[in-house]
Amino acid sequence: MKAxxxxxxxxFIELYQHHLGESEVxxxxxxxxxxxxxxxxxxxxxxxxKFRGSRLAPNLYIFLIGPSxxxxxxxxxxxxxxxxxxxxxxxxxxxxxxxxxxxxLGRPDKASNVIxxxxxxxxxxxLAMSVGEGGQASxxxxxxTDLYTGTDHIIREGTRTRGGIRITQHCVNWIAGTxxxxxxxxxxxxxxxxxxxxxxxxxxxKYDFTRRFRRPQYPHDYDEVVAHLHERVLELSYIEGxxxxxxEAESIEEVWYQHREAPHDEDLFxxxxxxxxxxxxxxxxxxxxxxxxxVIGRHHIIAAQKAVGQVMRAMPxxxxxxxxxxxxxxxxYVSELLKQRKAMAHxxxxxxxxxxxxxxxxxxxxxxxxxxxxxxTRYQSPMGGWAYAWGGQRRLDDxxxxxxx
Length: 405
Prior knowledge:
Layout: H1 12-20, H2 27-42, E1 46-47, E2 61-65, H3 72-80, E3 91-93, H4 98-106, E4 119-124, H5 127-131, H6 134-147, E5 155-159, E6 163-167, E7 171-178, H7 180-186, H8 189-192, H9 195-198, E8 200-204, H10 222-236, E9 241-242, E10 244-245, H11 247-259, H12 269-273, H13 275-290, E11 295-296, H14 298-322, H15 326-341, E12 343-345, H16 346-354, H17 360-372, E13 376-380, E14 386-390
Parallel strand pairs: 1-9, 2-7, 2-8, 3-4, 4-7, 10-11
Antiparallel strand pairs: 5-6, 12-14, 13-14
Helix pairs in contact: 1-10, 2-3, 11-14, 13-14, 15-17
């Protein structure tokens, strides 16, 4: 009989990944769903004192970003199955508005409450459907930005029609699934490049058509590991107290902090400034994955720095997507087509982009823009008519440069 992985490791995150087996859902989605589950379980009952007298809790806002069918919802559901029957965790899954969420957080706690209403794990598997778009979404994002940092101070919210809301000692964790397009439609550019996304872990993934599993392949010790994980989740929901760091961990943190490279793009400044807080939050969670001694060691801070670095490397692409307009979307699509195909006849190119709503006149404008930017070369196809290649793969016939397509 095969030995259980429990004989080799007790690391919560490793065991969590193990029980999932092999599937087409990106592992990075499962990694962050697991971290989101852990953060929601401990809420603000554990903390690190970064500034004297204040508590930095390991709560997280996590956005799983990827195309439809990639497995965002599945990754979230796998984490949620460990919350069933867990009395010390409030899970709010579904649609909401800023006003309703504030009402939820501000409800008076009943004597029978095991956990305060102000501690919640917000779960929105489809972001746009859950929080809406336009002004409604913008208002929601602004409130979530304000709620990210817990406080001992009372938050008051009130209007003439709704009356007053009193929120005390709140702690909000959030995990959402969204496509890149819906993310940009729901979250305004000002929030992507400003305070909100600086507080958010954006986990971006793409299709991998080489990874194919008709059904997930689960490990032989699945039931044993799942039972163990349920016990660990229950333990996490009761752990309480302040974190400390070993001297070696503090030395590594200091070197990293003093020597990390500042971004050149102004849109990334806010995310860079909050990078340190996220590192400390993750270090706490990585420590909890090993045991409950509430000590951040060398390998915890290193793992946290690595994870934050991966998140930050994805930010420029997301910020760029937030800056796209109807015009730039067409340019990017045509560019990607030519990069992949190397070269395309005009008729073939038009046939493909027309299905995406790009007209013949619009295509001509896009191609002219790319040619003037020296990103695309236009040449006479041996089969007749014009063709286009990415970059300088073909020399442009100057005598025909001004001819019409």
